[in-house]
Amino acid sequence: LALAMSIFSEVPQAPPVAVFKLTADFREDSHPQKVNLGVGAYRTDDSQPWVLPVVKKVERLIVEDSSLNHEYLPILGLPEFRSAASKVALGEDSAAIKDNRVGGVQALGGTGALRIGAEFLRRWYNGVNNTATPVYVSAPTWENHNAVFADAGFKDIRPYHYWDAAKRGLDLSGFLDDLEKAPEHSIFVLHACAHNPTGTDPSQDEWKKIAEIMKRRNLFVFFDSAYQGFASGSLEKDAWAIRFFVSEGFELLVAQSFSKNFGLYNERVGNLTVVARDNENLTRILSQMEKIVRTTWSNPPSQGARIVGKTLNCPELFAEWKDNVKTMADRVLLMRDQLKAKLQALGTPGTWDHITQQIGMFSFTGLNPKQVEFMIKEKHVYLMASGRINMCGLTTKNIDYVAQSIHEAVTKVQ
Amino acid sequence: TSLSHSRRVLNKGEILWKCCAISWWGGVQMGPPDPILGVTEAFKRDTNPKKMNLGVGAYRDDQGKPYVLNCVRKAEAVIAEKKLDKEYLPIGGLGEFAKACAQLALGADNEVLKSGRNITVQTISGTGSLRIGANFLSRFHGGPRDVYLPKPSWGNHTPIFRDAGMQLKAYRYYDPSTCGFDFKGALEDISKIPEQSVIVLHACAHNPTGVDPRPEQWKEISDLVKKRNLLVFFDMAYQGFASGDIDRDAWAVRHFIEQGHNIVLSQSFAKNMGLYGERVGGFTVVCKDAEEAKRVESQLKILIRPIYSNPPMNGARIATTILNTPELRAMWLEEVHGMANRIIKMREQLVAGLKKEGSSHNWQHVIDQIGMFCFTGLKPEQVERLTKEFSVYMTKDGRISMAGVSSGNVGYLAHGIHAVTK
């Protein structure tokens, strides 16, 4: 006796999220030489996921600690995780932390941190509930940025020039021009390092130019930091931009993810670092963050935060972690070197310097959609339509095949 | 804080930001403390050795300690042995979890499951489930924006639906004169709800009152809701925890489905598996058919992805292991039964204690109510006295979490309640 008319009969089928569809297609492919260069997760040289040795160690410690239970965390999360996470971003001797004007909101991965930050900005930034404040995201950017800010209520999300396809590098003049022309108080989402998907980061001098304009024009800084440590192998180096902006006096937000640098993808460990003018402002801000968190997930999951908190707060474990991170970063750097060398050896048309100039997990190969289609359909090498490849998908075992495939794509398909 | 800088040389950054006139956040108001979680925080600050925390609904054993279920510990050991990786879950979460979760709520042989006309996704416990549901309704429900909550309801329901863009209304539920169910008032109000509005029903162990409809009352509510063509949103946070029997506690949900309501349902495993901080929950939409379920699923993913991308593994893995391993499932059912029984015993002891104190009031409702919470009937002034004079912490509405009551402190509680009500 079902009720006559379904209320959901008009619900349209939504398109699948591209990056996950790619992996799904890859899984179904039975070709023996298939390679997955899609979703951004680290792989070992045997194409296996890697649970960091330090994570295994800390998980054992947690299991053996019978004093631990599964009680609710506070709304803003595990205190020792939050403070340690913010410290990782801002540095041991951060003046802002010493001034007690830095706070953290534990969140469900980097996505969760971005969303809480976006919700907060929509409610409280540039007026109250000002959904018209422009939000600028890089062209291109991580495909979920748009939806995060749109679903948080922002009505005006715009691209800023970033990737120069012709020269395969940063379009600095376009970027700076957009900063000069953006309405005052616009929000800019900046990738702290290892830009996703291009792997192209501003140099320190370029960051200084960006900061100068942003300060002069009262633009809001929202850093997305998903790869600290993973990009160069050095936590400090990868946090340089964030720390520079903080030292320049910006009040800003940093959405941190520990998915990649801790390999804790499925435990959803993130932190929204808030750098405020002073402690009084920080207190009010955090009280409003609590309200947002309470209607989104009430309080965050405990397992991942415990692992990261324990690791960051113990000197030996912290050192071991940095070592594990360097292992991952080094393997990626090796694959970059090798891919470029092989393409050059094959005489593949075009320049391939960008492969080693770019940094982090991803490389924007410059392959066009037709060439990408060729790679997937003919060669069973899976990459995003944008030409983005995950360097972690490359191994010493498959790199020849991939280089050869790219060579064919470039020479056969226009 | 800025005065403390005056004695040393300011660095360039400090000079620059001191010169910047205004902070971005001058207009940010101080948010009020969360009424429920705020109680625990006040409790922590109290130094009275006899203090009692009857605020937040987390189960405590008879020593007043958090209780990690044995089946949970065993499941964790099993999982640790497997040496699983940490790869991202799908947006909708662990598939096996979603399946087991739906089976638990609906019963394994439910026609809905057989025909595949439900979509169930893993969520961030009950709150996350409610929010996903609210967001989904806000985006896709063609009916009125109004969500009807029982009066009273869990405090967080209102801001969740509001933040999702829905509007809140209420139907009568609790009768303060009887500390019981206002059945007549509920039916009257429900009969006036405009067609296609959303009505929230607590599946069992109503929060905050502990007052549940009886089966024959549920039947009438179902008939009326069907007549009014309302969209039913069940919130089931206490399956197993209410009566001690998971099937009994899911009876209302199953009855409504059987009667043809295509419900939406939120489930939490925070209480019944003690997995509070692991954030384990499920959201289900019962659709017309499998094809519709696929469309709905695709849209749920589009909603979820910009909130947190995909849910956490740990708790879902534990819950799935328990539900799908026969001996662990049996162990779990026993432990849930044990938790519910201890609560029931505390209710009885509290009433006995009040009688012993010489209270002349009728405290039968303490025994009639079910689940973790008890709506004592205490007025705000009485609650305030109970907190100030006896260090008994509870929410202003007179709600106490029975889980915070133990054989060691039930006498003290009876004494305090009697003192403020005599």
From TrEMBL, chain A:
Residues 33-406 form the Aminotransferase class I/classII large domain. Its main location: cytoplasm. It holds the Pfam family Aminotran_1_2. One of its GO terms (biological process) is aspartate biosynthetic process. It is found in: Cytoplasm. One of its GO terms (molecular function) is pyridoxal phosphate binding. Keywords: Amino-acid biosynthesis, Aminotransferase, Cytoplasm, Pyridoxal phosphate, Transferase. Its EC number is 2.6.1.1. The keyword Amino-acid biosynthesis applies. CDD domains: AAT_like (cd00609). Its cofactor is pyridoxal 5'-phosphate. InterPro entries: Aminotransferase_I/II_large (IPR004839), Asp_trans (IPR000796), NHTrfase_class1_PyrdxlP-BS (IPR004838), PyrdxlP-dep_Trfase (IPR015424), PyrdxlP-dep_Trfase_major (IPR015421), PyrdxlP-dep_Trfase_small (IPR015422). It catalyses: 3-sulfino-L-alanine + 2-oxoglutarate = 3-sulfinopyruvate + L-glutamate; L-aspartate + 2-oxoglutarate = oxaloacetate + L-glutamate; (2S)-2-aminobutanoate + 2-oxoglutarate = 2-oxobutanoate + L-glutamate; L-cysteine + 2-oxoglutarate = 2-oxo-3-sulfanylpropanoate + L-glutamate. GO terms for cellular component: cytosol. Gene3D superfamilies: Aspartate Aminotransferase, domain 1, Type I PLP-dependent aspartate aminotransferase-like (Major domain). Belongs to the class-I pyridoxal-phosphate-dependent aminotransferase family. Homodimer. In eukaryotes there are cytoplasmic, mitochondrial and chloroplastic isozymes. This is Aspartate aminotransferase. It comes from Myripristis murdjan. The lineage of its organism: Eukaryota, Metazoa, Chordata, Craniata, Vertebrata. The gene is GOT1.
Automatic annotation (TrEMBL), chain B:
GO terms for molecular function: L-aspartate:2-oxoglutarate aminotransferase activity; pyridoxal phosphate binding. It is found in: Mitochondrion matrix. The gene is GOT2. Pfam families: Aminotran_1_2. GO terms for biological process: L-aspartate catabolic process. The lineage of its organism: Eukaryota, Metazoa, Chordata, Craniata, Vertebrata. InterPro entries: Aminotransferase_I/II_large (IPR004839), Asp_trans (IPR000796), NHTrfase_class1_PyrdxlP-BS (IPR004838), PyrdxlP-dep_Trfase (IPR015424), PyrdxlP-dep_Trfase_major (IPR015421), PyrdxlP-dep_Trfase_small (IPR015422). It comes from Myripristis murdjan. It is an enzyme of class 2 (transferase). In eukaryotes there are cytoplasmic, mitochondrial and chloroplastic isozymes. Its EC number is 2.6.1.1. Belongs to the class-I pyridoxal-phosphate-dependent aminotransferase family. It catalyses: L-aspartate + 2-oxoglutarate = oxaloacetate + L-glutamate. The keyword Glycoprotein does not apply. One of its GO terms (cellular component) is mitochondrial matrix. Homodimer. NCBIfam families: PRK09257.1 (NF006719). Keywords: Aminotransferase, Mitochondrion, Pyridoxal phosphate, Transferase. Residues 50-417 form the Aminotransferase class I/classII large domain. It comes from the Eukaryota. This is Aspartate aminotransferase. Its main location: mitochondrion. Its cofactor is pyridoxal 5'-phosphate.
